[in-house]
Amino acid sequence: MSRTDERYSRQKDIVPAERIAACQATIIGVGAIGRQVALQLAAMGVPWLQLVDFDVVETSNLASQGYLEEDLGKLKVEATAALCRRVNSGIEIVSIAERFRRSMEIGNAVFCCVDSIDVRRLIWESVGGSASFFTDGRMSAETLRVLSACDPQSRRHYPTTLFRTEEAFIGPCTAKTTIYCANIAAGLMVAQFTKYLRLLPLEADIQLNLLASELSVG
């Protein structure tokens, strides 16, 4: 067994090697959820990763988003890319330190990890029809929602979740992010991605309230 085969030996019956090798993954937003998605995809063996985020690492991002103290002041895309390369030195990473724009070229698998419903709408309108796989992670404190679209039914459902900005829940900014909830959201997004790779049906809408231990799947 080669070193590469050994590296992925424990996931080979779950993550199809040929399918993941053909994937180019774009993560838009590398905050709490997006950073964890990037690390998981790098570990799983996605060969090409595109990170899109204009923000820099601040002190408030250390506990809530898992950035390192040495990352303070760095661009989030660069700090995340550096750690992904430590996880998998063979990965190709394209870092774009800008806000998402309609004209951007993206991969065939899109992970939407932004914190604005208006930006979600822009992303969906720009790439929702072209991406083979699309998933959106949303979180507030200890509640999360993961939406995925890669077939006609789920592609019809997703736009119905893009409510108006004024309808969004507004809570204390210090209560919006917990790293354990972000990790769970990222794991669910990547789990949906592996189902897509295996040509299995996806759940279009997963909602989880950790505090109340309530799970809704639709």
Structure characterization notes:
This protein is of the alpha/beta class. The chain has one domain (about 5-215): NAD(P)-binding Rossmann-like Domain (Rossmann fold, 3-Layer(aba) Sandwich). Helix content is about 35%, strand content about 20%. It has helices spanning about 5, 15-20, 30-45, 60-65, 75-85, 115-125, 150-155, 180-195; strands at about 25-30, 50, 90-95, 110, 135-140, 145-150, 205-210, 215. Strands 3-2-1-4-5-6-7-8 form an eight-stranded mixed β-sheet, sandwiched between helices. Helix 3 links the parallel strand 1 (about 25-30) and strand 2. Helix 3 packs across helix 8 (about 180-195). The protein is globular and about 40 Å long. The model is unreliable at about 165-175 (pLDDT under 50).
Would you summarize the structure shown here?
With 218 residues, the chain is α/β, with parallel strands linked by helices. It is 35% helix and 20% strand. It has a single domain (3-217), classed as 3-Layer(aba) Sandwich (Rossmann fold).
